[in-house]
Design brief:
The chain is an alpha+beta fold. The chain has 18 helices and 11 strands. It folds into 2 domains: 227 residues, Alpha-Beta Plaits, CATH 3.30.70; 260 residues, Up-down Bundle (Formate dehydrogenase/DMSO reductase fold), CATH 1.20.1630.10.
């Protein structure tokens, strides 16, 4: 069976950008985005400086994470290994951009859908070479079938020592490099300044603010300084809508858990608050969650396709059904509480608790599918999301319940949840991380661009509410609850932005 692959010979590349130009012309790539580009890195100290090139693009991985995370199969892998995309199916969720460890996917500003290098599939299917291969004046770009021992790709792999980008991600990329300098392929090996050789980097590109994560090995000679002289501007995929979605979803899920648990044990507030007020507020915040998710899509009019043509490996698709099932359970709960005088709630409570916990927690495996963002691959994320939901739900209950309805037990549980969420946040940020990408992102969280949100979240959202809650008084507890909700949002926002901070190309 055919398996297409690249071999990119950087010992031949002269950095002429002919491949970039040919790609744009052949595929009508809009201004400002790129399917293939040439990264320039200057290594050394004047006067001993050398410029190195690297041709970057989709790696057409054997195990492409962009395909697994896509909720509607807009990204798909053909039997010949080529990873292609369908403009007509894409909903613009941008999850594939977070999953690609090579920064190869962009949002097309004309169609508002995801796009990338697809090996010029329309040419390959006609027996032609990709356009970039045709125009390369030095034959630095080789394209062929890995299964054919006579192909240029197979011969080059047999005759040369090759490397791949970010092998630690386990995607098994099918883009092999001959003679590429480490500083061109390792995104964190070279310094990213505010300006490039010919241009500014762009106001939204914050990678230069990420502290360096690389530490020299003991007794190893220091590496010569390296600076990125040219790279293409990158797009930040997720911002405040995703941060807010995690927050509103946590509130909705926490209220459902408390409603279900409160059906069996006294949680320190009135039964009316547990049976009626909490589910009503949960439905409101679940609706806001849906609005944020749909509003953040580049093609929101297609949102319904995630339910009609789901790709079941994607936790985005699974999450949509979990949220829908949880919303239905809340509606049934309210109907039983209002029209059946509470009959049947005991039987529904376990279902509500399970669906609420799934609603709170499914974001952990979803972010786990975002292979490009190592900070999000933490095993502490699932317990953190559950604790986040419980704290958010209890805080809202404190705010909506009257002063007379809260007890010392509520205060104690509230303080415990504050300490648990705060500890998980701090431990996850300062612990030893397994990859340089995660280390750099954690440093952005604690010392870099997002540190102001992170430390404010711990101070205003954890420490101060705990002090106020322990001080006593219903009014102070209400203030503490409001501050804790603000802190949860601040931490979530810092976590989402910091994860996208380190360069990945």
């Amino acid at each position: 069976m055919t398996r297409w692959a690249w071999v990119i010979d950087q010992t031949r590349c002269i950095g002429c950008h002919a491949c970039t130009t040919a790609c744009k012309s052949e595929n009508d790539v809009p201004v400002g985005v790129f399917r293939t580009w040439v990264k320039n890195v200057e290594v050394g100290t004047f006067p001993d400086v050398k410029r190195h090139f690297a041709v970057l693009r989709c790696n057409h991985c054997a195990e492409p994470p962009c395909v697994d995370v896509c909720p509607v199969t807009a990204m798909y892998q053909r039997p010949d290994g080529l990873v292609d995309f369908d403009h007509n199916a894409c909903i613009g969720c941008k999850a594939c951009m977070q999953a690609c460890p090579y920064d190869a996917i962009y949002m097309d500003p004309d169609s508002n859908t995801a796009a990338k290098c697809n090996f010029c599939s329309h040419r390959v299917d006609e027996g032609l070479l990709p356009s970039c291969v045709v125009v390369c004046p030095e034959e630095a770009l080789l394209f062929g079938d890995l299964e054919d021992p006579t192909s240029k790709v197979s011969r080059a792999l047999k005759e040369n020592r090759v490397t791949v980008r970010r092998a630690e991600q386990g995607t098994r990329p099918h883009a092999f490099y001959i003679g590429a300098h480490d500083a061109t392929l390792d995104p964190l090996a070279a310094r990213h300044d505010a300006t490039y050789m010919w241009s500014d980097r762009g106001a939204k590109d914050e990678r230069m603010r990420v502290p360096p994560a690389r530490k020299p090995l003991p007794m190893a000679p220091p590496a010569p300084p390296a600076r990125v002289a040219y790279d293409v501007p990158r797009q930040r995929a997720w911002g405040w809508p995703v941060s807010s979605y995690i927050w509103t979803k946590g509130i909705a899920a926490g209220l459902g858990i408390l409603a279900g648990v409160g059906q069996y044990v006294d949680i320190g507030v009135s039964r009316t608050a547990v049976q009626l007020i909490a589910p009503i507020v949960a439905i409101v915040f679940l609706g806001i969650t849906g609005g944020l998710l749909v509003g953040d899509l580049k093609r929101p009019e297609r949102f319904w396709t995630i339910l009609t043509r789901p790709q079941w490996k994607s936790w985005l698709a699974r999450g949509a059904f979990i949220i829908a099932a949880y919303g239905a359970a809340l509606v049934v709960w309210l109907a039983l509480a209002i029209f059946a005088d509470g009959a049947g709630l005991n039987g529904l409570a376990p279902v509500l608790i399970i669906l609420a916990a799934l609603t709170a927690g499914y974001t952990a495996p979803l972010l786990g599918q975002c292979e490009a963002r190592d900070l999000w691959q933490t095993p502490l994320l699932l317990p953190h999301l559950i604790a986040h939901a419980l704290l958010a739900g209890l805080a809202v209950v404190i705010l909506v319940a009257s002063n007379a309805e809260t007890t010392t037990g509520v205060r104690a549980v509230f303080v415990i949840l504050l300490l648990v969420t705060g500890s998980l946040s701090l431990i996850d940020a300062v612990k030893r991380h397994q990859t340089l990408n995660a280390t750099a992102a954690a440093q952005a969280l604690t010392r870099g661009a997002q540190s102001r949100f992170f430390w404010l979240a711990l101070l205003v959202g954890v420490a101060l509410p705990a002090i106020l809650a322990l001080a006593g008084g219903a009014s102070l507890l209400i203030v503490a609850a409001a501050l804790s909700l603000a802190g949860l949002w601040l931490h979530g926002h810092a976590f989402i932005l910091a994860g996208q901070g380190p360069p990945i190309s």
